[in-house]
Amino acid sequence: MGTRTRRHVSVVEAERRRMRAADLFEQGVRQSKVADMLGVTPQAVSLWRRAWAEGGREALLSKGSGGKSYLSAGQEAELEALLRAGPMAHGWDDQRWTLARVGRLIEERFHVTYEISGVWRLLDRLGWSWQVPKVRAVERDEEAIAAWRTETWPAASHPRRSQPLQGGSASRMKPEPG
Question: Where is the signal peptide (predicted)?
Fold first, then answer.
């Protein structure tokens, strides 16, 4: 049995592989040999063979990517505009979009319910990435921070020793008489 590695294959490549399997089924090649030749699992070949036996080559044709959206292209464009406006424009008290918030926005605006994983796939397809925002107070005063760093902190930090250390020990033990 050959070694197999998992890798992403395109819809076209997967369909081409299934059509090659159909050719091999028609030639009477054993399922285990088909799996080795095509670099797929015996379970996949078993499913393909059953579909082929029941519906011929047509049953092995691609049914699409399966990445269906419940929103139209226009609704997706509108969603992007809503997301760009930010969460505060929609009633949340901070500037963080979460998958739950986006899902709620979609449900309220478009009357469509997505699972959290579906919200993630939709956002990914629309080009939105997962990011953790830098949390900064709205009241943050950069000038005051710079002044504190240059004036207050140096004065409050450990003062430099004015005299060099003289001989001695930091140990609590008394030194041996010399």
Answer: none
Domain regions of the chain by residue span? 11-60, 67-150
- pLDDT tens for each residue of 3-17: 444 444 566 788 899
CA angle 59, 62, 68 (to 5 degrees): 125
CA distance linking residue 124 with residue 99, whole number of Å: 11
Mark out the alpha helices in the chain (DSSP H runs). Answer: 11-26, 31-38, 42-55, 73-85, 99-110, 116-125, 142-147, 153-156
Does residue 64 surpass a pLDDT of 60?
Answer: no
- DSSP letter at 152 equals I
User: Minimal CA–CA distance to 98: which of 118, 70, 119?
Assistant: 119
What confidence tens digit (pLDDT) does each residue in 88-101 have?
A: 999 998 888 999 99
Q: The pTM is what?
A: 0.41
- Going by the DSSP 8-state scheme, the letter that residue 175 receives in this structure is P
Nearest to 102, CA basis, from 115, 158, 12: 115
Residue 63's φ and ψ, nearest 5 degrees, are: -105, 15
pLDDT higher than 80, residue 176: no
8 Å CB contact between 134 and 83: no
Record the tokens describing residue 103, joined without a space.
């899902």
Q: Measured between alpha carbons, how far is 118 from 116 in angstroms, rounded to an integer?
A: 5
